[in-house]
Amino acid sequence: MAWRVTRRRFLGGAGSAALVAGAHVLGLVPRRARAALPADPVVVLVELAGGNDALNTVVPVNNVGIPQRSLYDFYRPDLGIAAVDLSATLIGVDPVVGTSLALHPAMTGLVSLYGMGKLAVLQGVGIPNAPFDHSRAAAIWAAGDPAGFAGTGWLGRYADGELDPIEVPVPALALGLRRSLAFDSAAMHALTAATLDPFGLPDDPLFPDLPARAAAWQAIFAADAGDDPLGAMLRAAGGQVLAEQATFPNVVFAGWGSQLEAAPSALHEDLHQVVSLLRYDQLNPGTASGIRQFHVVHPGYDTHAQQGLTDSGDRHATLLSELSDALSRFYADLVALGLDGRALVLAYSEFGRRARQNGVGEEAGTDHGSPGVVLALGGAVVGGVYGQMPGLDDLDATGNPKVLVDFRRVWATVIERWLGATPDDFLPGGPFTSIDFLLP
Amino acid sequence: MAATDILGTTDAAHLLRRAGFGATAKDLAHFAPLTRAAAVSQLLDLKPRRSRPPGGNDTAVGLAAMQRWWLKQMLAPKYRLHEKLALFWSGHFGTAFGKTPDTLRLARHNALLRQLGTGSFRTLLYEVTRDGGMLLFRDGASNEQPNANEGYAIALLGQYALGETDSAGAANYAQTDVSELARALTGYRLGPRDQVGKVSADAFDAGAKHLFPGNTAEATGNLGVEDATGVQFPPATNVIDLLFAHRDTDARPTLARFLSRKLFEFFAYPAPDLAIVDELADAFVASGYVAGELVRAILSHDAFWSDAGSTVRSPVELALASLNALGAKASPVALPVALEAMGMSLFDPPQDGWNTGTDWLGAGLYLARLDFAQALAAGRSGRTYVLAPKRLFDPRATDDAVLVDGLLARLDVVPSAAGRQALLDYLAGAVGLDPKDRTERKLRGLVALALSLPEYQRH
After folding, report:
1. Quick one: which of A77, A371, B344, B395 is 20 to 30 A from B309 by CA?
2. Which residues of B154-173 are buried (b: 16+ CB within 10 A; e: fewer)?
3. Contacts of B251 (CB under 8 A, 6+ apart)
4. How far is Cα A309 from Cα B341, in angstroms, rounded to an integer?
């Protein structure tokens, strides 16, 4: 694993001709040095797991350009959201065909961020010829490679290539029971935790000798695993627990005024932990975790049946309401902390769902499909609607709207315009044209 | 080692670690003199149990009661392999409280896994297909003609029977197979809560379907599972049978390979050689797809007995093996909470199944293991854990090495030299405690450290 010059070192002198020239002398490819890029850009991946129904997330309101609304009503007699219910969540028109668009009525929080120009809605994004299996599709997004996952993720490769392992020993954190494949890298230094609160070594009044046990743990986890990859991984995981004792147990979660604290959902709780850690790092540079890539999962989007309003609630609306509310509060926290310019949130799903609803009445749902919608939120985001809503008059053989934007273009945009690196170094199959939701 | 050789303590411990939930001293004494074949037979050849968890109507109380009940079953020695297999099936099918908070239906579903788990896999697939818990979990109860939903169909193909891709990495089915299979599975309606679902003629799509074109399993016509009177379709048009007829790109039985690999990985280690998978798959096919015989083939295979591969213990395996080895007791309340923190909430697996291998390894989950280790080691209360160190250590031992090695042997773990030395240093107080201090407290500390050894997290 060869890391090159770090962003921090490189961009620390952004504007300095000497430094840029120095990069040439060293034979390094000069990366775009922009004053607008924050020093340690934060990426928060919010995975809407199960396959979010894009067509009920960004809904056509009229037939301008193409008869999108009529076809929507035709395909979704029960699940369709009436145009009158969309008047409060209009977000403008499709930039290509001019159809008026609205977010799901439950997404009022994100609509106001859209109005402030902080939310970008990327339409028609997906995997070319996507498999409709959850795990395969999710692995492709994480790998940044339609061929599938082969050991490293797109942000993991970026970390291997661009981040100094001494300065940033742990670049990434996945909250949940499983590691994020997006962070898998040669160095494998990403951290996985269901919760950071608490994250202290167990202490017990019965055992007054925590320091003695901590020293023993240190020796145990530092032991050489020899030629045993599993042993090495186990030691690394244990070592991470000890290493993070300098940080996580000291992070203040409650009472600092976070909008997310009264957490009505697990997504709120996860984002509360993320923003609390960012705040801790901001206030405690000496013991900062340095984590700048986060992955949280919002599950439940696999709405094969009873997707809409039923006796027991409205499944999809509940999910989108949680998402919208949690992201809005997260952004409000970032603004309050002055961190909104440093963080970029990307909400995406492994695939979208079929145009035509299945079932009838309350039983109606939607099956696995393509493509999806990606939401980008942040202080540096150039708000608006991007791409083109895939035409319901142009479905493919599986009854799905067509993928109009290769998902790698989203990742490429983030690498180039947010992380300041060269997308082709980390994404196979390029080059990919960046999308203008971030400034060039 | 042959099937007729005597196990001895080491192999007995290996068997019970992988095929059960660890061993008590009594277990080891019982199994050590048996042959490999006899030991496997003793674990496996039991009449399946009909017992079912307490479901009840109150969901919140119900889940906790069900979790306590299952842990108790797992700790009972006789049926340990059967319960471990039921645990496998619960992850295989992924049926989760979170999506289906109907404890009565979940209890019935769980009883099915226990009762049919060692028998014909075809029967299990059929019963699961019409099971009320599953009909809710994968939205099969909402699958009606003419607008079929594909929730159960895609899980049946990708997660339950064939797997998404075969050994060569080729997709085992196309999207058209998913939609055609979904049509064949239309019509199931939920029955009363303690009964199976039934097909409604109105809701079933009786039109022609075309499944698996180009494959040995290719079939056309009115495909389905059963009619409204409960009579199953004949094999040529029964989609459950077609799954068994499916062949992969090597012309091998896709289902047999898929399940053989998955079950071997559950009991032994990940990514076995294809030759091993094929030996197991052959035995599975030869038995007429009896899951218990596949388990016997795995437990009789040299690869199972070797230490060539290894994987991370699941939280349930870790916790119960610790209780068994230490002769400790857990409160029925504390244990499910600890398991949940370690990432394993019984009756509520992730939709695509329990974590496997290194996914149990995240630092946060490892920390939960350290927490568990300490809580167990500290246990003096019926409200948490009860552990009596005096029964673990020879009071006459004056040599620290005897104490440490005795504990390691009891836990059936071989740490690195540095790990063992760390335990010795801790006991000797080289890190600040009185070297003569062998108080109970310190012995408990030693147990906590031993349980958190990286080598102890694997089997």
Report:
1. B344
2. bbbbbbbbbbbbbbeeebbb
3. B216
4. 34
pTM, whole model, 2 decimals? Answer: 0.93
- Is there a contact between A219 and B442 if contact means CB atoms under 8 Å apart? no
Taking every pair of Cα atoms in chain A, the longest distance, rounded to a whole number of angstroms, is: 73
Please name the residues in contact with B240: beta carbons below 8 A apart, sequence gap of 6 or more. B122, B125, B126, B129, B225
Question: Does residue A292 contact residue A310 with C-beta atoms inside 8 Å?
Answer: no
Exposed, middle or buried by CB within 10 Å (0-12, 13-18, 19+), for B307?
exposed
Please say if the pLDDT value at position A25 is more than 90. Answer: no
**What is the H or E stretch that residue B112 is in?**
helix B103-116
CA distances from B150 to A52, B99, B124, B350 (A): 15, 17, 20, 19
Report which DSSP code applies to A29. Answer: P
Q: Which residues are CB-contacts of A16 (< 8 A; sequence separation ≥ 6)?
A: none
Question: Contact A177/B416, CB-based, under 8 Å?
Answer: no
Tokens of B370: 């350290």
Closest CA to B140 of B76, B91, B95, B206: B95
Q: List Cβ neighbours of B390 (8 Å cut-off, separation of 6 or more).
A: B440
Q: B220-255 burial, b for 16+ CB within 10 Å, e for fewer?
A: eeebbbbeeeeeebeeebbbbbbbbbbbbeeebbbb
Tell me: do B276 and B372 sit in the same domain: no
Q: How confident is the model at residue A32 (pLDDT cuts 50, 70, 90)?
A: very low
B141: chain A residues, CB-CB within 8 Å: 305
Query: pLDDT tens-digit profile of B201-260?
Result: 999 999 999 999 999 999 999 999 999 999 999 999 999 999 999 999 999 999 999 999
Subunit contact A204:B374, Cβ cutoff 8 A:
yes
How far does A138 lie from chain B, in Å, by closest CA?
12
pLDDT(A186) > 80: yes
Q: Which amino acid is at A218?
A: Q
List Cβ neighbours of A338 (8 Å cut-off, separation of 6 or more): none
Instruction: Return the bridge partners of B312, or none.
Output: B458
Residues B109, B153 within the same domain: yes
- One domain, residues B228 and B267: no
A64 touches chain B (CB under 8 A): no
Contact A55, A30 (CB under 8 A): no
Question: For an interface test with A, which of B99, B149, B424 has the most A Cβ atoms less than 10 Å from its Cβ?
Answer: B149
Task: Report the distance separating Cα A45 and Cα A287, nearest Å.
Answer: 24
Average pLDDT over residues A104-112: 98
B2 within domain boundaries: no
pLDDT surpasses 60 at A30: no
Q: How far apart are CA A86 and CA A89, in angstroms?
A: 5
> What is the total count of domains within chain B?
3
Reported ipTM = 0.93
Domains of chain A: 42-202+229-425 (3.40.720)
- Mean pLDDT (chain A) is 90
- Whether B208 and B221 have beta carbons less than 8 Å apart is answered as yes
pLDDT at A292 over 50: yes
CA distances from B247 to B159, B161, B166, B237, B256 (A): 16, 12, 9, 17, 10
- B136 with B83, same domain: the answer is yes
> Do B51 and B132 reside in the same domain of the chain?
yes
pLDDT of residue A12: 30
The answer to whether residues B331 and B382 touch, using CB atoms and an 8 Å cutoff, is yes
